Structures are given as C-alpha cells and as structure tokens.
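Hi W., the S-adenosylmethionine complex you wanted:
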Amino acid sequence: SDHSLEYPSEPKSFDLSKLYPAYQDTDQRPEFADIGCGFGGLLIALATLFPDTLILGMEIRVQVTKYVQDRITALRFAECSTEELTRKGPYQNVAVIRANAMKFLPNYMQKGQLSKIFFLFPDPHFKARKHKARIISPTLLAEYAYVLRPGGIVYTITDVKDLHKWMNAHLCAFPLFEVVEEDELRNQGHGPVLDAVRTATEEGKKVERNNGEKWLACFRRTDNKRL
Ligand code: SAM
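Structure:
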C-alpha cells in the first residue's frame, strides 16, 4: 500500500543530491523518466548512451527498487576509482526511486522537465474492471503532458496486443500528443534509444526468449500553441 510511501510535497523539495551525488553542485534535474522501470535494464543502457543527461527510474516494488539501487551502486564503483566517485563518472547520471508514479509524478517533476518518458511492458491489467489501473489513462495523460516538454517523446512497448491498442487509442485521442513513426525517430538519430526500448529491459528479454511479439508506439508532445 502507499501508506509507507514518502513523497515530496513539490518538485522543489525532491532531494536529488543523494540520488546523483556527482551532480549536487549543479541544478540539473532528470530529463528522462522510466515509469515502472522494473529491474533497471533500460536505465543501465541509457546511462552510457546519454552520459550528460540525468535519468530517473520510478518503481513501486520495494525489493525491485532496492535491487536496482544496488545494481547502480555496483556499476558506479566498478567503473571508476575511489577518487573518481565524486566526479561525473559512468552511471552517476542514473538513479531509481521507489514511487507510485501513477499518483505522485507531478510531486517529483516540474512542468516541461522531461524530454523522454518510457512505459515499457507495463502491467496489462487484463480484466475490463481493472482497466482504470492501467498506467495510460486520460487523467494520467494530462500529467504526462504536463511534465513532458513540447517536442518530448513518449515511448510505449508491450507484448500484449490489446494493451497496445488501448495505449495507442488513448494517446492518439489526447490533443497534446501526436504519433511519431519509428522510421522518423530513427532518421532523427533516436535509433539507439529505440533499440534499448526493444531489447534492454528484463521484460523485453523475456518476451524475446518466448518468441513473443512486441508492439512499439511513440508519441511526440505537441506545442500548447497548436490547441
Ligand atoms: N519496464 C520494466 C521492463 O520492461 O522490464 C518492468 C515491466 S513490469 C511488467 C511493470 C513494472 O511496473 C513492475 O515492476 C511494477 O512494479 C511497476 N509498476 C506498476 N505500477 C506502478 C506504479 N504505479 N508506479 C511505479 N511502478 C509501477
């Protein structure tokens, strides 16, 4: 339950210095968010692809979050000498928090803070009466649009075709998002990100092992002025 969940009252009081100690003298804030990051495969892949960008995973399960924290700490130590630990060495730009992203995202993120937001293999909640528990819904889309800057990209992928249709339908219907085709993103240099989206997460690897299909859909945050 959420009773034991602590969360900041507003983004300004979200303490980033413990998460990104090498960046504590900067005013940089996370620019990419992986919602329901699971075991952290995407975070680890993006950390070295975007060494100057702060990346945040949000995960609701306590033990899974702890696992990802330990994984990041180990990589930080493995990749640099002790005196380098305070510098902006590898994996210093990636962190994870335990959070209910469906309830508290605007407590962590300022308006327009994000340029990328990821929903990779979200829980499908198959039964119709459970659909309101899905991480993509009209109410939540308003929050995602708020924290994403115009031009920012939403990445979704799932192996559940019905969920793909659901996410696609809701995102297409929302005025602040427009579909962006995979080819277009690849032509704009987003290929490595798309490859990570497809293959870097633990769930994505599992789907591969089972020869499952993957449905990708990406959306661009439009400019408010167009409304
Ligand atoms: N994205 C990861 C991957 O591709 O391997 C994990 C996919 S897993 C099927 C979905 C994850 O979302 C789980 O780890 C679950 O605990 C997390 N989750 C579900 N609801 C959440 C919420 N409201 N806030 C944060 N995480 C959530």
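Residues 28-226 form a domain with the Rossmann fold fold (CATH 3.40.50.150).

W.
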